[in-house]
């Protein structure tokens, strides 16, 4: 279930990159941020949907 946590962190970092790219008017960074957020966000949602939310115990 560590995969969900990693995907979530990458998605959050991509969203931060989108906001930063908008402030700096960096179009290429914005495109890559949108792509990364879309792909890793989708992986996060589908992993949680298929395997469930990670718990602390096995």
β-strand number: 0
Number of helices: 2
How many structural units, i.e. domains?
A: 1
Strand content: under 5%
Rg computed from alpha carbons, rounded to a whole number of angstroms? 13 Å
Class by SSE composition: mainly alpha
Q: Overall mean pLDDT score?
A: 87
Give the SSE order as H and E letters.
Answer: HH
Structure commentary:
It comes from Thermaerobacillus caldiproteolyticus. InterPro entries: DUF2759. The chain crosses the membrane at residues 27-49. With 58 residues, the chain is mostly helical. It has one domain. It is built from two helices and no strands. It has helices at 2-24, 27-51. Helix 1 runs antiparallel to helix 2 (27-51). The mean pLDDT is 87.
Keywords:
83% helix, single chain, mainly alpha, DUF2759, transmembrane, 58 residues, membrane, elongated
Task: Please provide a brief summary of the model.
With 58 residues, the protein is mostly helical.
Q: How does the SSE layout of this entry go?
A:
Blueprint: H1 2-24, H2 27-51
Helix pairs in contact: 1-2
